[in-house]
Amino acid sequence: MATMIPSIGEKRGKQIVYTIEECLGCGEKNKRTFTVGDYVFKQNGQCKKCSGNILITMIYAEPIKPTQ
User: Fold this and answer.
1) Residue 32 burial (CB < 10 Å; 0-12/13-18/19+)?
2) CA 67 vs CA 33, 64: distances in Å
3) Chain center to CA of 8
4) Inter-residue contact 18 to 32 (CB < 8 Å)
5) Using CA atoms, how far apart are residues 25 and 7, in angstroms rounded to an integer?
6) So what's the pLDDT on residue 18?
7) What is the pLDDT along the chain (68 residues), one digit of tens a residue?
8) 41 burial type by CB count under 10 A (0-12 exposed, 13-18 middle, 19+ buried)
9) What's the pLDDT score for residue 61?
10) Which of 7, 14, 19, 51 is the most buried (most CB within 10 A)?
11) Does residue 68 contact residue 29 with C-beta atoms inside 8 Å?
12) pTM
């Protein structure tokens, strides 16, 4: 039986965290790097395209690919 949760002290590769913002009016999406204070469902200003409200819909991490 495999576990999904890493054990304490297990080493993981380096990751970069991204925030996805989405306009509630036109559906425009924007991917940017995470900043301290971001959280899901946070209203984050107005859309430049349609002046609708922008909402943070997702925060996730991607592993950094090593360069060869």
Assistant:
1) exposed
2) 20, 9
3) 24
4) yes
5) 42
6) 96
7) 454 555 565 666 788 999 999 999 999 999 999 999 999 999 989 999 899 999 999 999 998 877 76
8) exposed
9) 92
10) 19
11) no
12) 0.73
What are the domain boundaries of the chain? 15-63
CB-based contact 39:16 (threshold 8 Å): no
Give pLDDT, residue 1.
47
- Spatial separation of the C-alpha atoms in residues 27 and 14, rounded to whole Å: 31
CA 43, CA 5: separation in Å to the nearest integer? 31
Contact 53, 25 (CB under 8 A): yes
What topology is assigned to 15-63 in CATH? 60s Ribosomal Protein L30; Chain: A; (3.30.1330)
How far apart, in whole angstroms, are the C-alpha atoms of residue 1 and residue 4?
Answer: 10
